Give the backbone structure.
Amino acid sequence: MRDLFDRMYKDKGPLGKWAQVAEGYFAFPKLEGSISNRMKFNGNEVITWSVNDYLGLANIDEVRKIDADAAKKYGSAYPMGARLMSGHTELHEKLQNELAKFVKKEAAYVLNFGYQGILSTIDSLVSKNDVIVYDIDSHACIVDGVRLHLGKRFTYQHNDMESLEKNLARATKIANETNGGILVISEGVFGMRGEQGKLKEIVALKKIFNFRLLVDDAHGFGTLGKTGAGAGEEQGVQDQIDVYFATFAKSLASTGAFIASEKEIIDFLKYNMRSQVFAKSLQMQLVEGVLKRLDIIKSRPDIKQKLWENVKNLQSGLKSRGFDIGTTQSCVTPVYLKGSVLEAMCLVKDLRENYKIFCSIVVYPVIPKGLILLRLIPTASHDINDINETLDAFSAIRDKLVSGEYKKESLKLAF
């Protein structure tokens, strides 16, 4: 018998093995200052492309004022207890009603956090007799939710409708044997690649198969669709999404999340989601703050227009310079380069220290070996100067990468 900790002493995992050289810089970096297009990192002002404040609401004076006033009025404790017992308020109900109207659903329910919210939603929607079919590129929160499922689950290839059909056929056979149902899960926008889930094509399969659709629209809510109601609105199928989920942590620049569906389903989830039944209610200052943010989204369409102006300028600029940004259909802007993990570290250090550009870096094992993914998140706070400086910097670091300059730098010398 071994000590439980032996494994952790010997193997820190594929990402953890880099902790000694990465922590504080590539992992757990410390951005300082007000959330905006330019912040401080490592003592320098940098153009920030790694904050999901899509609509730039985090640093608007009226938003910061409502946050401050609500914190002063309620403190950080109120309401105490879970919603089911003692943590329910009229403001929670008001926010739910406003959210339901906004995403065109009968009812909504406010959740404490996004990650545990979607995880618990999945767990509550299915029984051991049911079958889950989900996109293989789904976010970790979906994967962890599926892991809780005691019944059968299948993945389909990313946005591949032929693969989905095959797995729906398999799921249907099993569901018929167990007298269960089928839950299909997709994201509205896949946060790494920026591709929208093929929601229109998925709901078309309801004519052939009997299933319900859950959509995690964390990156689509507030950014896509005529009103900002998300990927379903963008694709004209919002009414055919059975359970809609979105987080407050991106477009609304806050904490928390919500689910929306027909009233009976929301009533069921309210009483059966363990992460809500047994957890403290979302604090009042956050609820009041989200109400204000939602009002701004509805009354200020110019903010979303500014966001998309920046998205189009950034993405078209990258493509015109020959960069591979994949097939993004959203604000998420991936830039794919070829190189090793060590080259990626040297490249990003150069980008941050010498070009004053801060963006997220993704390497193996999240993506295949030999690839480097630089992930840019344009927001309404950015301007054309930010974009032009970034385009010039990216051209420069690509030239260095191709010439082998970063390959010559060892990890010891670079860090």
Summary: The CA atoms of residues 245 and 259 lie 4 Å apart. The first strand starts at residue 31 and ends at 32. DSSP finds 18 helices and 14 strands in the chain. The mean pLDDT is 94.
